[in-house]
Structure formats: structure tokens, C-alpha cells
């Protein structure tokens, strides 16, 4: 079987899959014929639904329909951002060992899933969408994520890939891959600075690149992983909950189903307001048989979200500052992500760049197409048109160690080119705290003066409390220590840290690879579970196939016997079959097949008498 490499844009709200095919990046439509798939997973009494099927049934099954999972992946349960999004979700998140788990009822039983498992289900759906279209196997994928993902989030995505039985060959920031699409579509020989602004469902990501023919050099990235279309929806929901309370003195938040219906209508209203200046919302029987009819203008929508829109400008300022590029030096500004369609956002960006024209490439598909280009380049060197494209990427967050006074000293600073290897020399903190200004000091261990604790952190704050501890290890030191700490970060965000007291020699060197994802055992268990769910799904597909075969066979016969006399026995058998499958929606594959066999046995003597072998021929005979 032919193997294909694809690009998957894994979004908070929608995911999209693309493949490099016939010299271009093609978007692959899903089984509903849609080019983007909602990032939704639902658990029902009989099966797991993913994508459109899951989103379509949310108001009937709000507690077991999971969405927005990219806002949770790689975060601890108590993380403030995770906590603040959870309160709007109709499904339950519980804590186990500080990690969040999604609790659902599946086939009548309580089940807990890690965010990695839910994401793996989304990845499998995208993989299957591609496989169905390509008729081959998909193993290698490039995945795009928001720019501000940290190392634990990258690791969590890699773990999700393992559970989905996929090889994630690279994880790239979504605006960066969108820039590849843009660059390829607008080829010129001139070097240009391109700013890509990606405002999606839950995140706002910005990249600035210098594109020089086939070289895409990322200068800086910035973002806000807590800002996107869903937040604008939440503002509308809050507004209407208050209006409802004022008008009817009733609390909509008490009813999850009503909230879900309101959410869908708010999203629809928001989208409509990108095209028209006012919208009517009409929801029949929203709560206690009350019909909720209300209108909303574009101005009101903008007013409700003003501060959020304003904060979407901040990553733009930051990325320019970090890249040391002035506004006027930006040659092109490119918008992607569904929420970049909001007119006010477009106006604010254009104003910020003194009225500059904005380039709108397909906001839903650009990132996936760029990821497909990367997947093609990394998996084969036979694709003439993209073979020479070179993407030079950067890290989005600083990595460093704790030094004296509980501050972080960065070793690999944010926006450093990847891969990166950096070393720094440290001394041991002497009694006098004020001598600290001269060089970098590490505290000795309080219990053991002949060793130091190297603590590795990620983050931009100078105090440790606000950053994430990635790992730590102890290093033996001499009486006159001179400690060299080396960080090595590869293209796949694997961080290796080593430390050595130079006065003691290399043999005392200590090394760790930072591992912060799931343990090997956990992954093994989840891989087995995922296989079980896939087998169950396969069984359901076969069952539906058997039911469908049986139903159509019965109805064909039914049409036939209407045309002939003396067919009472067959007619009764057909009626019995119809009643049976109407009363047995959830029968097993074998049962459908068995019932079909029984019906065939009744029909076959008649067929024999008429000397025919196939029911469709029976129709021809009867027609004569
Ligand atoms: P993600 O990559 O985070 O999944 P997308 O880029 O697919 O997100 O964008 C999805 C978001 O864009 C949703 O919040 C959706 O409501 C919003 N969106 C899509 N079309 C429009 C539109 N015409 N006007 C306003 N918002 C839109
Ligand atoms: Mg996106």
C-alpha cells in the first residue's frame, strides 16, 4: 500500500487535513463533504462520534460531548487558564495526580479520558479522512499548533500522536505554516517581511518571517493562548443570559441544554455579523417553554468584545519588538484563522499599520496546506516544486535555570533559531547577596554543600514562581566550582540539559533529557485502549453495513412482490422483517445477517420456480 504524509492543522474549534498531491497542497474533505472538521468528540450509549457527527448532537448530549480540548492539553488541572475555560464547559473535568481528565458516560458506564486520548481520537479521524480519499496509508504527519505552546503541550501532542499510531515528524506553529502557503502563492524574487496573524477559536498566534524566495526564516513568534472566537461567543452568551434574566427572571445557566443551544446561536450570530450589520436570534422553547427572540447589531457585538479585540493587538506589538522590525518595514500582512474575518479586527490591524492593505488568504485552510508542504518535504525529496524550501523556525518561550535569589536565568532565550545549543558558566553563590551583580550564581544545596541543584524552567518571568518547572537534577561540585550548564533543544522540542563542574572534569558531567509527558506505561495502556475503541468502531461500521444490506434487500423484495399474485407467504415474511428491524435498531451484525438469511430462504423456492438466481433479475421477470 502506498504511504502518504499529510499536514494536519489541529485547531481548538476546527481541524483540517491536507496532502501534497499533483504539485499542490490539496485540502481533503471529510465524510460530510466539509473541508474543515469540528474538533469535537462525543460519547453515546453505543459509540464514539468524532467531528460533525459529534457537534451535531451536542444539545441532545451536552455532558458527553467534548470540545475545546486544545485549551486543556499539556496543562495541569489547577492551571489558571485551564480553570477559567472549564467553567463554561457542559462536560466534566476531574483531577487525578494534578492532571485533568474528562469524565463521560460511554455505553452506560463512567469513563475518564486524558486530553491526549481525546486529541488522539481527533487525529485518527483526520488520518482516516485522508486515507479514505488517498486510498493508501497515512503514517507521517506534520501537525500545526498555536505559537504559544510550551514544552509540555508539545509533548502532549506527541503523546497523542503515539496513541493514534501516527509518526509526528514535525510540530510547527500554525501562522508559520500559513506563511509557507502565502509565500508559495505569491512568489517573488524580492526579500520581504511578512507578518501572519492567526485568530482562531481559542488562540491568537502571530509570526513574523522574512521570505526570500524559497527560504522562510521565522524572526519571532508571539501569541495569546487564551484569546479567540470562543471567547467572543462567551461574551455573547453572558450578555444574553443577563438579558434573559432581566426579561423573564430565569437563569439560563441552570440548564446545560439551553446553554448549548444558546452557544450555537451565538456563534451563528457572530458569524452573521461579519457579513451584515445586525442579526435576529430566534430560539424557540429555550427554557421553560419560553421563546427567546432578540436582535444584535454589529456595534453591540464590537462593544461587548472591545477589550478582547484590543488584546489581540498585543502579540503584534510584541512580535515586532522581538524581531526588531519597525511597522513600516513589514511588507505584507496576512490574516488567517476563522476569527480574522471579523471586520473590526481587520480594521484595527489595518489602522495599526497606518491603513495598510491586508492580504486575506483562505483563513480556514492556509495552515493545513503549509503543513502538507512541510510533510512532503520531510518525507521525500521527490517533490520538485517544494524540494528546496527551507523553513528556519524559532522557539516561542525561554528556557533557563534557577539562579540565586529565586530568579530565572535564561539559557535559550525565546525566538532563538531551532535547533539550538547554548551554554552558560555559573558560580556558586557566596555569602554576600550583593556580589550577585557581577556574574551568575547558583545556590548550593542547603543540606549538602558539595552539590548544587540544577532546576530547569520554562517561561518569560524573572521570578521562578511564575514559570514552569520542567525538571531538576543534582550535580557534585568541588570547593572552587565553575559550573557550565548546556541546553540543547532540537527541532522536535526535545530538551537535553547537561551540567559539569569544569574544575572536576568531564567524567563528572550530569545529563538529563527533560521528559514531562505521559509515562511509557500510561502510553502503552492508552494505545491498547485506543485499539479497543477502533475495533469497536469497526464492529459498528460492519453492523450498520449488515443492517443496511438487510433493509435494502427487504425493500427490493417488497416492491417486487407487490407486482405478483400468490406471494402471501413472501409478503408476510417481508412485513415481519420490516417490523423486526424497526424494533431492533441496536441488533448485532450476526443477527441482521441471520434474519436476512431467513428471508432469503423463504424467497429462494420462488426464485427457483421462476428459474432465476438474483433478486434484481426477479424484477425483470416480473416486469415481462
Ligand atoms: P482554530 O484553528 O482555533 O480551530 P479556526 O481558525 O478554525 O480556529 O476558527 C474558528 C473560529 O472562527 C470559531 O470561533 C468561529 O466561530 C470563528 N469564525 C469562523 N467564521 C467566522 C466569521 N465569518 N466571523 C466571525 N468568526 C468566525
Ligand atoms: Mg487554526
From TrEMBL:
Entry GO MF terms: ATP binding; ATP-dependent protein folding chaperone
Q: Spell out the Gene3D superfamilies in the cross-references.
A: 1.20.1270.10, 3.30.30.30, 3.30.420.40, Actin, Chain A, domain 4, Substrate Binding Domain Of DNAk, Chain A, domain 1
Give the source species: Rhizophagus irregularis (strain DAOM 197198w)
Q: Which family does it belong to?
A: Belongs to the heat shock protein 70 family.
What keyword terms does UniProt attach to this protein?
A: ATP-binding, Nucleotide-binding
Q: Which residues form a coiled coil?
A: none
Q: Which PROSITE patterns match?
A: HSP70_1, HSP70_2, HSP70_3
The protein's name is Hsp70 family ATPase SSA1
Amino acid at each position: 500500500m502506498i504511504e502518504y504524509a499529510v499536514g494536519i492543522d489541529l485547531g481548538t474549534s476546527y481541524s483540517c487535513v491536507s496532502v501534497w498531491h499533483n504539485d499542490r497542497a490539496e485540502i481533503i474533505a471529510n465524510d460530510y463533504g466539509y473541508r474543515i472538521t469540528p474538533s469535537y468528540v462525543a460519547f453515546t450509549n453505543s459509540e464514539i462520534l468524532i467531528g460533525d457527527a459529534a457537534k451535531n448532537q451536542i444539545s441532545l448530549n451536552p455532558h458527553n460531548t467534548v470540545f475545546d480540548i486544545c485549551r486543556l492539553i499539556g496543562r495541569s488541572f489547577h492551571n489558571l487558564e485551564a480553570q477559567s475555560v472549564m467553567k463554561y464547559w457542559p462536560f466534566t473535568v476531574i483531577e487525578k495526580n494534578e492532571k485533568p481528565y474528562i469524565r463521560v458516560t460511554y455505553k452506560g458506564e463512567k469513563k475518564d479520558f486524558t486530553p491526549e486520548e481525546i486529541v488522539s481520537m481527533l487525529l485518527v479521524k483526520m488520518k482516516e479522512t485522508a486515507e479514505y480519499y488517498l486510498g493508501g496509508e497515512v503514517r507521517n504527519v506534520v501537525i500545526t499548533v498555536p505559537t504559544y505552546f510550551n514544552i509540555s503541550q508539545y509533548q502532549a501532542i506527541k503523546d497523542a500522536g503515539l496513541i493514534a499510531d501516527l509518526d509526528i515528524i514535525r510540530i510547527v506553529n500554525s501562522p508559520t505554516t500559513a506563511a509557507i502557503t502565502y509565500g508559495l502563492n505569491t512568489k517573488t524574487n524580492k526579500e520581504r517581511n511578512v507578518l501572519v496573524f492567526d485568530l482562531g477559536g481559542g488562540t491568537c498566534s502571530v509570526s513574523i518571517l522574512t521570505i526570500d524566495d524559497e527560504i522562510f526564516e521565522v524572526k519571532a513568534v508571539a501569541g495569546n493562548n487564551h484569546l479567540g472566537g470562543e471567547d467572543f461567543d462567551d461574551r455573547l452568551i453572558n450578555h444574553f443570559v443577563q438579558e434573559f434574566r432581566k426579561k423573564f427572571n430565569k437563569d439560563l445557566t441552570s440548564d446545560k441544554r439551553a446553554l448549548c443551544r444558546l452557544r450555537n446561536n451565538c456563534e451563528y450570530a457572530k458569524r452573521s455579523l461579519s457579513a451584515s450589520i445586525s442579526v435576529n436570534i430566534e430560539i424557540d422553547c429555550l427554557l421553560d417553554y419560553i421563546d427567546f427572540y432578540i436582535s444584535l447589531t454589529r456595534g453591540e457585538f464590537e462593544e461587548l468584545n472591545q477589550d478582547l479585540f484590543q488584546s489581540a493587538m498585543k502579540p503584534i506589538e510584541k512580535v515586532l519588538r522581538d524581531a526588531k522590525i519597525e511597522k513600516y518595514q513589514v511588507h505584507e500582512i496576512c490574516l488567517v484563522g476563522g476569527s480574522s474575518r471579523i471586520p473590526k479586527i481587520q480594521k484595527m490591524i489595518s489602522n495599526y499599520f497606518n491603513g495598510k492593505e491586508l492580504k486575506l488568504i483562505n483563513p480556514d485552510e492556509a495552515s493545513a496546506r503549509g503543513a502538507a508542504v512541510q510533510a512532503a518535504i520531510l518525507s521525500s525529496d521527490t517533490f520538485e516544486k517544494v524540494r528546496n524550501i527551507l523553513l528556519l523556525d524559532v522557539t516561542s518561550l525561554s528556557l533557563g535555570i534557577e539562579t540565586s535569589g529565586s530568579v530565572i536565568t535564561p539559557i535559550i532565550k525565546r525566538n532563538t533559531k531551532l535547533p539550538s545549543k547554548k551554554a552558560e558558566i555559573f558560580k556558586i553563590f557566596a555569602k554576600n547577596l550583593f556580589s550577585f551583580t557581577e556574574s551568575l550564581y547558583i545556590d548550593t544545596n542547603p543540606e549538602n554543600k558539595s552539590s548544587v541543584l540544577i532546576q530547569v524552567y520554562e517561561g518569560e518571568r524573572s521570578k521562578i514562581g511564575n514559570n514552569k518547572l520542567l525538571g531538576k537534577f543534582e550535580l557534585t561540585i568541588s570547593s572552587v566550582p565553575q559550573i557550565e550548564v548546556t541546553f540543547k533543544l532540537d527541532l522536535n522540542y526535545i530538551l537535553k540539559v547537561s551540567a559539569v563542574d569544569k574544575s572536576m572534569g568531564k567524567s563528572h558531567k550530569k545529563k538529563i533529557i527533560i521528559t514531562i509527558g505521559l509515562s511509557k506505561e500510561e502510553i502503552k495502556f492508552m494505545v491498547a485502549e485506543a485499539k479497543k475503541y477502533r475495533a469497536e468502531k469497526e464492529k459498528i461500521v460492519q453492523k450498520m453495513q449488515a443492517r443496511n444490506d438487510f433493509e435494502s434487500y427487504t425493500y427490493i423484495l417488497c416492491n417486487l412482490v407487490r407486482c405478483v399474485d400468490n406471494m402471501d407467504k413472501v409478503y408476510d415474511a417481508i412485513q415481519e422483517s420490516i417490523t423486526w428491524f424497526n424494533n431492533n435498531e441496536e441488533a448485532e451484525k450476526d443477527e441482521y445477517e441471520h434474519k436476512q438469511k431467513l428471508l432469503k430462504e423463504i424467497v429462494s423456492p420462488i426464485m427457483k420456480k421462476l428459474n432465476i438466481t438474483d433478486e434484481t433479475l426477479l424484477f425483470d421477470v416480473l416486469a415481462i
